[in-house]
Amino acid sequence: MAGIADGRLTDGRGRDRMIHYAIEKQGGEIWLRQKKYEPRFALKTESVFAQCNGYMGVRASLGLPSLDGKKGMFIAGLYNRAYEEEVTELVNCPDVTGYELVLDGVPVLPDSRCLTEFERKFNIHTGELVITSTYELESGASFCLTDRRFASMENEHLFVQSIGITMQKGCIKNGGICTGIDGQQTNSGVSHFKKVNCRVYDRKYLHVEGYLEEDTLSILEGVSYTGEEEEAVFTLKRRGITGRYFFSIPDGGTWEFTKYVYIQNEKDSLGLDRQKKLLEKCSEAGYADVFLKHKKIMQDIWRQARIEIDGASPEEEAAVSFAQYHLLGMMPWHSTDCSIAAKGLTGEGYKGHVFWDAEIFILPFFQYVFPQAARNLLEFRYKGLDGAREKAEAYGYKGAMYPWEAAVTGREETPLYAALNIHTGKANKVWSGIKEHHVTADIAYAVWQYYSVTGDRAFMERFGYEIIFETASFWVSRGQWDEKRQAYVICDIIGPDEYTEHVDNDAYTNYMARYCCRLASVLAEKLCAESPDLYRELDRRLGMDRNRKSWEEFADRLYVPVPNEELVIPQDDTFLSKKRIPDIEKYKKSQIKQAVLLDYSRDEVVDMQVLKQADVVMLLNLFPYMFSKEVVKKNVLFYEERTIHDSSLSYCAHAQACAAIGETELSWEFFKKCMVIDLDDNPNDTTDGIHAASLGGIWSCVIFGFAGISFSDGRLNVSPRLPKHWKEMRFSVKVYGHEIDVKINRREVLLESREKFVQPLSVLVNDEIYTLTDTLSVKCKDKEEDICA
């Protein structure tokens, strides 16, 4: 039987944090439900309920014309620069979901008085969207309209939509539905397609080709519907094509109409005849059978990815599964030509660009669950290495300097100007692409983390070593010698906290730069001794002999901020000397992101102790054993008092840091907030797409934080810190190609490898060392408190 919850959580300040959507559990699957027509939440819900399969993402907009909402379909890797002064952006493609419905001369519109009931619901585990609405016409006739959709995981190019009309009272004598492919969609008013060609094949298939500067998008649509009806009428319109299909429905009868759409970039070429044959087979099979094939693939994926938590509320289960659904849906599974954008495939936010979030917050999920996908993401960065070298050279540095915002090349895509200065009215310069350099170390860090968990030597030899060595060379050239400190320093930089610009010795950046150079130095020495042929090849291209000593010296003599007498790690050289912002709670509680910039200019914010997100807290998560528990707790609390959490990455970073030191209650307060970043009752948020990296952060909080999983130096570490009401967790991780089923409860940590290890794996459970060959059971303290309390 289905269970329904209202989605209420509390944020620790006595203020309700709502999962705006009702939650329904049914047959092991979870639905999110919007139970009434809410134009105010249209944009948000379209992002949250989007259908995504890694190749495409389709926003969950209404099919019928409505006053609110923003239609959107996005294809992984399909970018374009509309005009010379514009930046490259992920293209909003022609819409295939819209339709007009006229029944006995009356247009059916959701914003009219005829609408009596409405529900939009989304299945997190299958990705199916179902929109159900009931209308009562002035004639007295009433009917139920059902719109079902999914983006196929069985064939990544296939999108399917079924529209059904069931008469509840009266009949329809003259019905008509007009639908097709609408190429008039834009990115915030900018149309990317230089030319759109439309035609009809066999009086059955609608075809649109849209031409970009360097790509062509092809969309072929076939339909099937019940009954012996009049022949369809096709109409070409500007940048689109429609078919009008006619029908009648008796009292109590149902009419069904299904669209099968094949979508491809020209480089994913499948001939038109083969596309038509595929759509014909889909039409013969019907929506239910095509959906079943998709569902079976989804079930296989979830068997590998699902996290089961006994004791978690329906809201918590929904939030964790929701995060995983969109992580799965944003991954370009079969390509290394693109990566994961900050909004996944659900909206136009951040121009569809790729940031450091992809490596630090998103990659860990794939690294431990779908390692081949993680490799694809890192191969994308390798393909951008030449562009990173060009950027470094342009700024007078050596090695490779990765772009702050990337698209499909290694070139920098960050716009030069953004929001207006509230005092001068002039556009603020965007310094991130010029000064936010930690992305270069983040990528090197991710490369080594991937190798450490997978043991993928082929990847390192073909791609990984070169990335690490070239990024290390960049950092050596980026630093400068400080006579007073007798150390290298990194000046005029921006850390992850983008409210503090042009600072010296940002803690996060300096620690990451040191890590990168030390790693490069160690690996170079090891390669020289163990793989001389590979070393000589890299030396020929990168000058290994010339650079090795400089990497080692830079790592040994780079200044890094250390905890002061109060145990606080200075975020940078001047942060602790700045004045605190008055009434910071006002901005913490605001439902408007970056509300502080409505009252202060960016220059004023830079000179205050106010953070968008805490660099130091993120640093603690990447190096969990570097500082004591006392230092970690002190810094989490110190910086949280000064953090507005305008970044969606902030709450998950705080939650994970607290969990790592056993501060489970404090961690839970942060985790409650990060769980609902996209699902809360703020209609102004998530409107231009979900927060992709925050969803990765939710997974990291659960697995790295609460389950206490980590892997380093060839050893799997398990130090559980379950929230008090969680009784047991079950999930799987992959290490060295072996899938390990993990079960954690108050009494036991149970590890079972699905394939026997030839060389036993070293495992550390609650500070005791064991070995895993196939099964390992470790008994824990049997009492009603956290395992490591």
Strands, count: 38
User: How does the overall form come out from the CA principal axes?
Assistant: globular
Largest sheet: 11 strands, antiparallel
Nearest-integer average pLDDT: 93
Count of helices? 21
Span between termini:
37 Å
Strand content: 25-35%
SSE-based structural type? alpha+beta
Strands side by side in the biggest sheet? 1-4-5-13-14-15-16-23-20-19-18
Explain the overall architecture.
This protein has 21 helices and 38 strands. It has 789 residues and is an alpha+beta fold. The strands form 10 sheets. An 11-stranded antiparallel beta sheet has the order 1-4-5-13-14-15-16-23-20-19-18. The chain has a 5-stranded antiparallel beta sheet with strand order 12-11-17-22-21, with no helix packed on it. A 5-stranded antiparallel beta sheet has the order 24-33-34-35-38. Strand 33 and strand 34 form a beta hairpin. The longest helix is centred in the middle third of the chain and has 24 residues, at 507-530.
Short description:
By secondary structure, this protein is of the alpha+beta class. The protein contains 21 helices and 38 strands.
Structural topology:
Blueprint: E1 3-5, E2 8-10, E3 16-18, E4 22-26, E5 29-34, H1 42-48, E6 51-52, E7 56-58, E8 73-75, E9 79-80, E10 89-90, E11 99-103, E12 106-107, E13 115-123, E14 129-136, E15 142-151, E16 158-169, E17 172-182, E18 195-201, E19 205-211, E20 216-225, E21 233-237, E22 240-249, E23 254-265, H2 272-285, H3 287-305, E24 308-310, H4 314-330, H5 357-369, H6 371-383, H7 385-394, E25 417-420, E26 427-429, H8 432-435, H9 438-454, H10 457-478, E27 480-482, E28 487-489, H11 507-530, H12 532-542, H13 544-557, E29 579-580, H14 584-589, H15 596-599, H16 602-606, E30 608-609, H17 615-622, H18 629-640, H19 650-660, H20 664-675, H21 692-706, E31 709-712, E32 715-718, E33 728-735, E34 738-745, E35 748-753, E36 761-765, E37 768-772, E38 775-779
Parallel strand pairs: 29-30, 32-36
Antiparallel strand pairs: 1-4, 2-3, 4-5, 5-13, 6-7, 7-8, 9-10, 11-12, 11-17, 13-14, 14-15, 15-16, 16-23, 17-22, 18-19, 19-20, 20-23, 21-22, 24-33, 25-26, 27-28, 31-32, 33-34, 34-35, 35-38, 36-37
Helix pairs in contact: 4-21, 5-6, 5-9, 5-21, 6-9, 6-10, 9-10, 9-11, 10-11, 10-13, 11-12, 11-13, 11-17, 12-13, 17-19, 19-20, 19-21, 20-21
